[in-house]
């Protein structure tokens, strides 16, 4: 099994690189952002609760997120491995994930970090907002998402670093070049 956390600020390319990693290594995708957007579209109770939080760029509660992950993991026991994208986003989520995986006799092998500077992130997300109309891709929400990332999410990097699992790559360049950097690390594991 190969279990990866793909890490990086909003707009760093986690979704794009996840797709390529999944295609090449046959992993199961866990994107908490996609899972929440599916709940929103289906207008579930959970989706209704999450909507205003996501529109502001704040974090949905650890309890809701851990519940979604727990449900999905238990139905994926035959998988070749997991890629976590946009999760864990707080140290509490990282601890929750370690505990959940340990219960199942599994562990995280590596955290791959996409490193991109702030102005590039803002430019990419504004462009995505124009092209795809995602409600949270407007300047005010983008700036808050980056702040929330800095304050609440970046400590998660230290959590994996202290376990010797963090590997950062330059997240700027062509999609294939960045994928080459990531697969180089995966294959060296
Ligand atoms: P991005 O990384 O591009 O900002 P995502 O699609 O990963 O976007 O997440 C969109 C929003 O969904 C976040 O701003 C947050 O409100 C919510 N969200 C997604 N994943 C989590 C998580 N693990 N914990 C808390 N909130 C989350």
Offer a quick outline of the entry.
The chain has 189 residues and is an alpha/beta fold. The chain contains 9 helices and 5 strands; from the N terminus they run βαβαααβαβαααβα. Helix content is 59%, strand content 12%.
Commentary on this structure:
The chain is α/β, with parallel strands linked by helices. The protein has a domain of 96 residues: 3-Layer(aba) Sandwich (Rossmann fold). Helices cover 59% and strands 12% of the residues. It is built from 9 helices and 5 strands. The structure holds adenosine-5'-diphosphate (ADP).
Q: In the CATH scheme, what's the topology name of the domain at 2-27 and 79-117 and 158-188?
A: Rossmann fold
Low-confidence stretches: none
Give the spatial strand order of the biggest sheet. 2-3-1-4-5
The appropriate CATH architecture of the domain at 2-27 and 79-117 and 158-188 is 3-Layer(aba) Sandwich
H/E topology pattern: EHEHHHEHEHHHEH
Straight-line N-to-C gap: 12 Å
Classified in CATH, the superfamily of the domain at 2-27 and 79-117 and 158-188 is P-loop containing nucleotide triphosphate hydrolases
- Total strands: the figure is 5
On the 0 to 100 scale, the average pLDDT is 97
CATH domain class name of the domain at 2-27 and 79-117 and 158-188: Alpha Beta
How many alpha or pi helices? 9
Structural class: alpha/beta
How many strands, which pairing sense, and closed or not: the largest β-sheet? 5 strands, parallel
Give the strand content: 5-15%
- The percentage helix is 55-70%
Radius of gyration: 16 Å
Bound molecules: adenosine-5'-diphosphate
The geometry reads as globular
Protein name: Adenylate kinase active site lid domain-containing protein
GO molecular function, one term: ATP binding
Keywords: Kinase, Nucleotide-binding, Transferase
InterPro entries: Adenylat/UMP-CMP_kin, Adenylat_kinase_CS, P-loop_NTPase
């Amino acid at each position: 099994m190969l279990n990866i956390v793909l890490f990086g600020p909003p707009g760093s390319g986690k979704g794009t690189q996840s797709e390529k990693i999944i295609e090449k290594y046959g992993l199961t995708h866990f994107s908490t952002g996609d899972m929440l957007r599916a709940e929103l579209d289906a207008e579930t109770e959970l989706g209704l609760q999450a909507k205003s939080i996501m529109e502001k760029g704040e974090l949905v509660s650890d309890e809701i997120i851990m519940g979604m992950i727990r449900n999905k993991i238990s139905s994926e026991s035959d998988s070749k491995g997991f890629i976590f994208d946009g999760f864990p986003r707080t140290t509490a989520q990282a601890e929750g994930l370690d505990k959940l995986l340990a219960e199942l006799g599994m562990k995280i092998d590596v955290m791959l970090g996409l490193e991109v500077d702030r102005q590039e992130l803002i430019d990419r997300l504004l462009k995505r907002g124009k092209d795809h109309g995602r409600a949270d891709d407007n300047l005010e929400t983008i700036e808050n998402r980056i702040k929330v990332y800095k304050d609440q999410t970046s400590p998660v990097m230290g959590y994996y670093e202290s376990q010797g699992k963090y590997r950062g790559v330059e997240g700027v360049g062509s999609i294939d070049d960045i994928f080459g950097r990531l697969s180089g690390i995966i294959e060296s594991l």
